[in-house]
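Re: the multi-chain job from yesterday

Posting the exact lines I submitted so nobody has to dig through the queue logs.
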Amino acid sequence: MKNKLLLILSVLFAAVLVLGACGSTDDESTDDQTDQDTEQNEDATGDEGTDDEDSSDEGASTEFKIAMVTDEGGVDDRSFNQSAWEGMQTWGEEVGAGDDQYAYYQSNDSADFIPNFNQALAEGYDIIYGIGYLLQEAVEDVAKLNPDQHFGLVDSVSDVENVISLTFRDNEAAFLAGVAAAHTTESGKVGFVGGQKGAVIDRFQTGFEAGVAHVDDSIEVDVQYANSFADAGIGQQIAAAMYTNGADVVYHAAGAVGNGVFTEARNRLESDPDNQIWVIGVDRDQEAEGDWEGGNFTLTSTIKGVGDAIVNATNLTIEEGFPGGENIAYGLAEDGVDVVRGNMSDEAWEAVETARAEVVDGTIEVPEFTYTEQ
Amino acid sequence: MLTMNKDRLNNLLVPIFSIFLGLIFGALLMLAFGFNPITAYNAMISGVFGSPYFLGEALRAATILTFTGLGFSIAFKAGFFNIGVAGQLLVGWTASIWVALAFPDLPRLMLVTMSIAAAIFAGAVWAGVAGALRAYFGTSEVIVTIMLNYTALHLTNYLILNVLGTGNTTERVSENANLSIGWLTELTAGSRLNVGIFIAMVVVFLYWIFMTKTTAGFEVRAVGLNPHASTYAGMSATKNIILSMLISGGLAGLGGAIHGLGTFGNLFTQSGLPTAGFNGIAVALLGLGNPIGIFFSSILFGVLEIGAGFLPNGAGVPDEMASIVTAAIIFFVGANYIIRFFMNKLNNKKTQAVQEGE
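And the result, structure tokens for all chains:
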């Protein structure tokens, strides 16, 4: 019996070995078609596009290597982590970096954060970015143990010497979204769907409420939290309740939970096309999510330039040295956050433009937090 | 006697074949997508075994999986599908951190014992609710434990935000609640491997004693095999249902304490249930309910989990591939009837041949 089993197994193994060998020779031809291997793809396109000019021009800077560690959302979350990774890819193209000069480490569980940082450490990257406030502890733990290594942290402030913090004044963009919502609503009621409670999402909520009140403080803002960044079902449930209660514009700052908000709005519009309702998207332009047969119901989206912030911090380090311990905050004035025109009416867009100018020149001070941080 | 030996051999062969078939399936899938499976497996293995740090991390992950695996397994032996291991782990984690934060200045041995005891208690209560509902009202423990998972998740997040924490996370527990052992940390180049692995070994041994050498363990198994017959034989089904669920939840809670105190040292808002809970189910299934088997299968899963991190940069393969391999292994364990069928067929032919030869 054993012999036969061994025979079967060894045949299977031989098959794998032989096929494996085939696979490796095929690699180059198949990789171009496979999107999954973005790294190698980027390399290929980068080489074609920029040719030799960039790499010879910036011989010194192309030695630089950067890496990022994602939070639990993963690198293809269509929002936060993805925009960070896209920023790195853009950087790679700009400086003509090879595919071993930028990489991501994906965390599937919060227990993976620290091993991922250590893995990146072993590979010798010049700056390792942690994407999201969830990684703060992990970044700080690893940074304290490796004082000579440079780290970056997005969306939270660390006071460790060798960590640069990149934060966003999301409340300013949310303020403009609030202005847009207040100029669009006809029912006098708007909604806000948050992800998990905490400092980051509180900025969105506070800014949005302030923006609505700035236009007309009789407009009611219905605030609900999903306690998740992933569960679209809860998002749909909350949106259904909001629209039923008369809200006609809903802003979500809840990652993938927002997909449920879009679904609910689409369902409602398809069954009752005359009753116009809107969704405001978050982090990247979500206009595509709002397409339906009668037009588009994405009023606008607030934009968060995570990728640009990473590119800037990296270039700053290359040019002037690492700004360790510093906190670089990106707001409307630095083009770090913004809103898009989307499907706003002329009147709403004009009001948003005015409000933007006033926020930038300091006439309006947008509050940052509703609750005082303990 | 002879048949028992054969069974034992089969019980060892089934998981081994499942692992092989799972790895081969993963390899074929990688080939289909144009990746090289040999580079991939090589990146995983050399990544984990090539450095004491990552080996330590793999063993740390395995420690947690041993507890959740044993926890799932004992309920499974008694005939229940405790899918709430993740939630029980989370309440155990919360309880241990709570106790550790409440008494930061107690002597280390006392504080660690108290924290762990609180975690076991919390996990046991969480599972016990489902057990009691099942025993007295016949409600499905699958549904109740799934719902209790979400209750645990949202309760934990509420407690962090309103009672325990400052924002999204609690303080770090004091040195006195730390589970790390100096020489072990040094040996594994600073990994988070901790005393939990020795606790896991002791628990594996105790589990084996309980299930094979004690009356209570025998009753649990008997109830699992046939509740009606065991009731007829004078065993209390109600008692055994609740007992097995209490132990199951207690083990998951213990895993939560080791995860909380050993891996993180604090508690933070969770966006989902801890994966160690669900992977524990897989570990238990691969270990076929045998405590030693569960211990080794949790090591395999720990290596797969940590090794997965090496796939994207070491071999250009998406790290989800490791999850697919894991899933394939579980599939083949679940489909062990097929494996047994072929093994029996081969066996019969052989005995026939032997008889003919004689």
